[in-house]
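My current task is to audit a protein record that another person submitted. I have pasted the whole thing underneath without changing anything:
***
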Amino acid sequence: MITSLHNPKMKLVRALLGRPKERREANAFAAEGVRLVEEAARSGWRFRYLLYSPELSTRGAALVADLKAGGVDCEPVEARLLQSLSDTGSTQGIIAVLEQDTLPLPARTDLLLIPDQVRDPGNLGTLLRSAAAAGAQAVLLPPETADAFAPKVVRAGMGAHFRLPILALDWEQIAARTAGMQVLLADMAGTPCWQTDLRRPLALIVGGEAEGASPMARDLATATISIPMPGGGESLNAGAAGAVLLFEAVRQRTDSTPGGGQ
């Protein structure tokens, strides 16, 4: 059992829960909590190791037993020490160190999400979760967007990282990936989404709340799109706006009535 914060495994977890530089150099990230670790295991994600408290729930203990049986290095840690690492303030007694892999981008894409300058971890995680649920093929992260593998983003993504290609690219690379697609920028002055055909191959740009979309995003966009808000208000937050627009695309693509997407 690990009984010291100076243990190398503990020190790596602490580093991974900190700065993006540490995650890049280690090519790894941390996932905390039973549900997230279950998602990683279910997806076949590569584990480096798992730390757990002896005071696990029945569900957590069963998960550890399954991972051990599958050859994952699982090591118990004194409960108070594991709690000291927790990013949530109330650990579920389980933290996995995972390889920072990138899932392959499908050869054909017709729904991509581009969160531009979205720096709030909760909003970015929500966008990733919505993109995965809506069946997007990938999320393209431009410069100046939050690190997708930061602990708060991973937690808010609720397993999206294990199902969705997430690629950090520069704008030239994003332009190449979206060639031939309509690139729509969410903007209050845009055409209402109910009046926009989202059945064609679509790359959706959602700008951050603080500064909105970058000049590079506006240059790439072929048009702008808005969400009608009859109740008023300046705007929705990035997470909510992205979810509405992604699922409007889903609605249009599954509506079998003539002109259902118009």
The longest helix spans residues 238-254. The longest strand covers residues 182-192. The chain has a mean pLDDT of 91.
